[in-house]
Amino acid sequence: PGASEAEAAAFRVGEEVEVFGLQGAVDLNGKRGHVVSFDEKSERYGVRINGLPEPKAVKAAKLRRVLGQSSSESARTCDTYRDAPMPAAFVEFLLETPVLKSLLQLLPAAALSALACCQQGLDREVRGADEAWEHLLALTFGGNVAIARTRCPGVTTPWSLCRGLAALRTALRTAVEIRRGDLCEAQALGVEVAVCPAVPSLDPYGPAASAVYQRAGQELADYIEASCERPVPHGDTRWTPGFGLGTQYIVHAVGPTLRTPDGDAKLHKVYANVLSQMVERGHTSVAFASISTGGNGFDPLAGATIAAEEFRNALAKLRQQRELRIVVVAFEEEIEQAFKVALGKLVKRPNEDVLEVLPLMILDSMLPRQRLTFSVDRLMNRVDLEQDRFAMVGVHGGSIISAGVEVRVVSRRTVGDSVELEVVGGRRFTFPGHPSVEEEPERTSAKPLLRVSLEWVRDEDERPTHEQLALSEALEPLVERWLRLVRAGRERQPGQMDMILEHLGPMPPAAEVTDRALWVAALINPLPGLGVAWEIRPAMLNADSSAQRLDIARKGLQASLENLANSA
Q1: Which of 20, 51, 467, 490 is the most exposed place for a label (fewest CB within 10 A)?
Q2: Cβ contact 322:359 at 8 Å
């Protein structure tokens, strides 16, 4: 390559880049991070990917600069703009648009003839640009090609998958309605099926069921008594005629309670059952009341998110072969807002599940890249020792903190009658609602086996202000001073800080405000603690923005420096 090309291909340490075109680790495509090193022997850059504990080695050909940087003139070349991702709305506009037909009508016959000659080849080139479409798919719809193929059965090429996901996003926007109201008014909504939250006995328990039973009349109670097998297991349904409600059918959906084993999965099941059954029966419209978020105790946002994921799954299976109208009838404003938030997240990234289920560990708040060794007897709950990934959370004031990190087991060994695990912290998460019981203990005094539906924290799109960047840069000399003071006699064992720094890796660049703040917090609040700083890990996990995390880390570091200076 020429000099200008070589210069354009080079990346500087600290520069923000985006990974694309990987054939092996496809889950990294579309991820952003910062260059932290360059290995001349392997000709690979060390890139710290946002949310991952360790840097990844990536060839220059698989990296592109992120737009908006001023660190190099090459970031403003035509090539950079050519490779920039298109906005999601523009992608959908291009995929399904009548505008081109209108423009073609304005062309003279000679131009149309020439265009027809090259159209076939151009179309083939565009559709066959798999790497570009894979990158666009991850950026615009979330997930990756493998996940997209499960959403769009029978579709294989990245170009076709983008079309399918664009259609799925449109279906979510148009097929699902969220309305304030009462399910007993389902007839006015013009739906064929009304889905009523139910209990295993099918008695009219709760405001929604009471109102529906009253509107449907005594015929409904008589039909249930004569024809419905009870008790109904959690996650299952019973269909009855609509009677006085005015719909063709009422579906009595028995959702889980907080004490139901594997409750989140059973809530998924009940929504999925209703949707698949109505499609099998040939119905095209349904009204849902929110299931399990009343007396059953589920958090409204958790319940709404599970419902929205199943709406998405049902629409994906139909693939526009049939129309489907889904109306969510929310009696309370809190339920209405929860469904709007949950649906909005799926519309934005329809190729990803908002929630992921992981087995839970309740012990202590950890931060990314921190390591902790402990006996499983110290855990507040039981764990399956065959698992390698867990959601780790701490406790504050007797309550479980609803934010934590994914941990991976890096070693395990038997110590006496117990097992000792070493875990390393990874991605951060929050979880709406409460953990669910995976398995009831055989004895009432035994610890339960728990799992949690969590949502990964996404903050890679945050850009620091000039003030935040200055405060972030000011952390480095404070950290150097803090390390000198701790090494002067406050370590619990020789070389403790060297070991911690080896685990945490180099301090992230100042532009990565959140990663730098988390790094500082992990340094001054190691596990086990040094006793020289405030406990700021829970606050860091619960912070809503990079500015808050930076403020917590800065104040925690300054307070620790004062404490060290006063005790010297």
Answers
A1: 467
A2: no
Task: Lowest mean pLDDT of 23-32, 212-221, 246-255, name the range.
Answer: 23-32
Segment holding 171, helix H or strand E:
helix 158-175
Between the CA atoms of 459, 461, 467 and 470, what dihedral angle is there, to the nearest 10 degrees? 80
Q: What is the residue whose two structure tokens read 């648009």? A: 97
349 phi/psi in degrees, rounded to 5 = -135, 75
pLDDT of residue 113: 62
Distance of alpha carbon 462 from alpha carbon 544, whole angstroms: 11
Contact partners, residue 432, CB within 8 Å, separation at least 6: 299, 301, 302, 305, 402, 453, 455
Half-sphere exposure of 38 (CA within 13 A, CB side): 12
Quick check: helix, strand or coil at residue 198?
strand
Secondary structure in 3-state letters for 288-319? EECCCCCCCCCCHHHHHHHHHHHHHHHHHHHC
Integer Cα distance of 236 and 219 in angstroms: 22
Q: Read off the DSSP letter of residue 125.
A: H
Rg (CA), the chain: 28
Query: Taking residues 556-568, what's their average pLDDT?
Result: 90
Strands 63-65 and 449-456, bridge-based pairing: unpaired
Say which residue the tokens 């560990």 belong to: 361
Nearest one of 302, 285, 284 to 357, comparing CA atoms: 302
pLDDT in tens, 441-468: 666 567 889 999 999 998 755 678 899 9
Q: What is the pLDDT of residues 307-345, one digit of tens each?
A: 999 999 999 998 766 789 999 999 999 999 999 999 999
Measured CA to CA, the distance from residue 142 to residue 24 in angstroms comes to 18
Residue 470 three-state SS? helix
Residue 158 contacts residue 133 (beta carbons within 8 Å): yes
Rounded-to-integer distance, Cα 107 and Cα 483, Å? 71
Query: Quick one: tokens of 129?
Result: 């640009």
Close Cβ partners of 384 (under 8 Å, ≥ 6 residues apart)? 359, 449
Provide φ and ψ at 497, rounded to 5°: -70, -35
| Residues sharing a CB contact under 8 Å with residue 399, sequence separation 6 or more, in sequence order | none
Query: Closest Cα to residue 396, out of 560, 257, 540?
Result: 540
Question: Which tokens go with 521?
Answer: 């917090």
Question: Is it the case that residue 89 has pLDDT exceeding 70?
Answer: no
- pLDDT value of position 84: 41
d(CA 315, CA 309): 10
Q: Is pLDDT of 155 > 60?
A: yes
Residue 556 tokens, joined: 């925690």
pLDDT in tens, 35-69: 888 887 788 888 988 878 788 889 888 888 875 44
The CA distance from 250 to 193, in Å, is 6
Nearest Cα neighbor of 160 from 186, 188, 136 is 136
Angle, CA 227 vertex, CA 223 and CA 233 arms, to 5°: 110
Q: For the segment 184-209, what is each residue's pLDDT rounded down to a tens digit?
A: 999 999 999 999 999 999 999 989 99
Contacts of residue 30, defined as CB under 8 A and 6 or more positions apart, other chains included, come to: 18, 19, 20, 135, 138, 139
pTM of model > 0.85: no
